[in-house]
Design a protein that fits this description.
This protein is of the alpha+beta class. The chain has 4 helices and 2 strands; from the N terminus they run αααββα.
Length: 112
């Protein structure tokens, strides 16, 4: 059964939202830092790039290479941005979550 490109896992959704949040600075290291801060736990660079590869295969993000820099040993940064399909997927996921949240009975206070 082929996967639905609009179906996002938690980490993929967080990553797409972080790419949106960082804008032109959405590449590996800043993405890891931002996700670590948001999740309040470390995020491995490898897991970020693996998820970005999946998202790119689904057509939800695209990437471009920046200029190579001496600080990076001549390596170029790979910058990511959401495609139109990625933006639609984020909005679709938000609508689904909003529908689920509004259909829930009142919840007790959030656990500590």
């Amino acid at each position: 059964m082929p996967s639905d490109p609009t179906s996002l896992g938690d980490f993929e959704l967080l990553l797409l939202l972080t790419v949106l949040r960082l804008g032109d600075q959405a590449y590996g290291v800043p993405l890891c830092r931002e996700l670590s801060a948001i999740r309040r736990r470390g995020v491995a660079v490898g897991s970020v790039y693996a998820a970005l590869d999946r998202l790119q295969q689904k057509g939800l993000v695209s990437s471009t290479l920046g200029e190579s820099t001496p600080e990076r040993g001549g390596r170029a940064k790979r910058f990511f941005r959401l495609t139109q399909a990625g933006l639609r997927s984020v909005h679709h996921t938000r609508r689904l979550l909003d529908t689920l949240w509004t259909a829930l009975p009142p919840l007790a206070e959030e656990p500590a």
